[in-house]
C-alpha cells in the first residue's frame, strides 16, 4: 500500500466518525429542551458537515473515493453509536454527557489518524490537528454545560 492509499484509508475511516458526529448532534438538537443548547448543537452539526467536506476534499485530492457513510467501523464508531442509543430525550444532563463521550471518541479518532502522520501529506496533518483542536474546545464547553446543568 503506498502512502496515498494509506492516507485515503486513514481519512475515510476518520470521516465515518465525523459523519456519525453530524448524526449525534442532529439527534441532540432534536432532543434538547434548552433553546441555547439546541442552537449550539446545530452549530456543531454545521461544523461537523464542514469537517466532513474538508476531509472528503483531501480524500479526492489524493485520488480516493469520498466517504459519506455513517457505518460504525471499528471500536470507536461502535462506541459512539452505543452512547447515542442510550440518550434520553428528557434528561438534559444525560444528553450533554452523551455528547461529551462522543467528543472523547472524536479525539481518539483524530489521535488514531495522527498516529499515521508520517504517511499523511503535511496539509492533511494540519487539517486533522485543526479539527482535533476544535473537538477539544467543544468537549471543554460541553463540560461547562454539564456543570451548569447539575
UniProtKB/TrEMBL annotation:
<dbReference type="InterPro" id="IPR011971">
    <property type="entry name" value="CHP02284"/>
</dbReference>
<dbReference type="InterPro" id="IPR019052">
    <property type="entry name" value="DUF2383"/>
</dbReference>
<protein>
    <submittedName>
        <fullName>PA2169 family four-helix-bundle protein</fullName>
    </submittedName>
</protein>
<dbReference type="InterPro" id="IPR012347">
    <property type="entry name" value="Ferritin-like"/>
</dbReference>
<dbReference type="InterPro" id="IPR009078">
    <property type="entry name" value="Ferritin-like_SF"/>
</dbReference>
<feature type="domain" description="DUF2383">
    <location>
        <begin position="7"/>
        <end position="115"/>
    </location>
</feature>
<dbReference type="Pfam" id="PF09537">
    <property type="entry name" value="DUF2383"/>
</dbReference>
Amino acid at each position: 500500500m503506498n502512502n496515498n492509499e494509506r492516507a485515503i484509508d486513514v481519512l475515510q475511516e476518520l470521516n465515518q466518525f465525523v459523519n456519525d458526529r453530524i448524526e449525534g448532534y442532529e439527534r441532540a438538537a432534536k432532543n434538547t429542551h434548552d433553546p441555547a443548547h439546541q442552537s449550539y448543537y446545530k452549530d456543531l452539526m454545521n461544523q461537523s458537515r464542514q469537517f466532513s467536506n474538508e476531509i472528503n476534499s483531501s480524500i479526492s485530492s489524493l485520488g480516493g473515493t469520498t466517504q459519506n457513510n455513517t457505518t460504525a467501523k471499528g471500536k470507536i464508531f461502535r462506541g459512539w453509536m452505543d452512547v447515542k442509543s442510550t440518550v434520553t430525550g428528557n434528561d438534559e444532563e444525560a444528553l450533554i454527557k452523551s455528547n461529551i463521550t462522543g467528543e472523547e471518541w472524536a479525539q481518539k479518532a483524530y489521535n488514531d489518524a495522527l498516529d499515521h502522520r508520517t504517511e499523511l501529506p503535511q496539509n492533511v496533518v494540519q487539517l486533522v490537528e485543526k479539527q482535533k483542536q476544535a473537538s477539544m474546545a467543544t468537549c471543554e464547553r460541553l463540560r461547562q454545560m454539564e456543570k451548569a446543568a447539575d
